[in-house]
Design brief:
By secondary structure, this protein is of the alpha/beta class. It has helices at residues 7-22, 28-33, 55-65, 94-124, 143-152, 170-176, 179-189, 203-212, 224-237, 254-258, 269-272, and strands at residues 39-46, 50-51, 70-73, 80-81, 86-93, 131-133, 166-168, 196-200, 216-220, 242-246, 264-266, 279-285. The two termini are 36 Å apart.
Length: 286
């Protein structure tokens, strides 16, 4: 069971999206063409196979336009769908349904695309120790929803922002004066509940991290053979240290990366390059 999104985030995001679409005058096309009081039935249908995410936002979109609409979910977030299978149904005032349909479909299509791509990455690393995790390469303002979609696809979430974990990257290391000074400063500044991760791109840098200690080490842009050696060194000297592979990860390379024994594989493409899942809206008047 995937936990629901925080209601206040959903409400705020949907309000912004509806305001963008409806503007000051509302849906002038439906107002001109559809008689007041006309009722309709809408069905959201999958046109391609995939994994569903974002239905909470769709329900909110229809509900904000017209609270009296009857809404039925045929699939929960995280469910797999085949072409032709129904996802959700809406019945009630036709004008309201038409005013909200695009906003609802945009959210579900975008987030289901992320969930679908994530599920494919997860499938490719089955049988290994690796978990697929997302990054901060998200659409501004939609991060919580896109990370939710990753969970719907069977992936896991990396940090949500700059506020909830320390990730010391190459630029931090350069400014701090090296790996050891950066790690020591981070440990001195952070409380015991804050995880500290550091990025390395060579085995020599990894050896320095193994001497100093950290919670997670990010092994960046390493070839599989080098990555395997890095994982072996960590397991031999600091087995509690989590290893994360990043850089150059694609559907074609992820299986080989997972085979090195890494704990985590972070994939920016999950949220910055996932194609929208093709979903259709079939409507009938009556």
């Amino acid at each position: 069971m995937i936990p629901p999104l925080p209601a206040h985030l959903v409400s705020e995001a949907v309000s912004r999206a509806l305001a963008e679409d409806l503007g000051l005058a509302g849906d002038i096309t439906s107002a001109a063409c559809i008689p007041p009081g006309r009722r309709a039935r809408l069905v959201m249908v999958a046109r391609r196979p995939g994994r569903i995410a974002g239905l909470q936002l769709a329900v909110e979109a229809f509900g904000q336009v017209e609270p009296d609409l009857d809404i039925y979910l045929d699939r929960p977030d995280g469910a797999a769908v085949a072409p032709g299978e129904g996802v959700m149904r809406v019945e009630g005032d036709a004008r309201a349904i038409l005013a909200a349909e695009r906003t609802a479909l945009n959210f579900v299509g975008r987030l289901s695309g992320i969930a679908t791509l994530t599920a494919e990455y997860v499938r490719l690393v089955q049988g290994t120790a690796a978990s697929i995790v997302c990054t901060r390469k998200t659409t501004p303002g939609l991060r919580a929803f896109e990370k939710h979609a990753v969970r719907c696809g069977g992936g896991r979430n990396h940090r949500f922002g700059l506020f909830d974990a320390v990730l010391i990257k190459d630029n931090h290391i350069a400014v701090a004066g090296g790996i050891a000074p950066a790690l020591r400063a981070a440990r001195a500044a952070c409380g015991h509940l804050v995880k500290v991760e550091i990025e390395v791109d060579t085995l020599d840098q990894l050896d320095e991290v193994l001497r100093e200690g950290a919670d997670v080490v990010l092994l960046d842009n390493m070839a599989p053979a080098v990555l395997a050696e890095a994982v072996a060194r960590v397991k031999a000297r600091r087995p509690a240290l989590l290893t994360e592979a990043s850089g150059g990860v694609s559907l074609e390379t992820v299986a080989a990366i997972a085979a090195t024994g890494v704990d985590l594989i972070s994939v920016g493409a999950l949220t910055h390059s996932a194609p929208v899942l093709d979903l259709g809206l079939d409507i009938a008047i009556g």
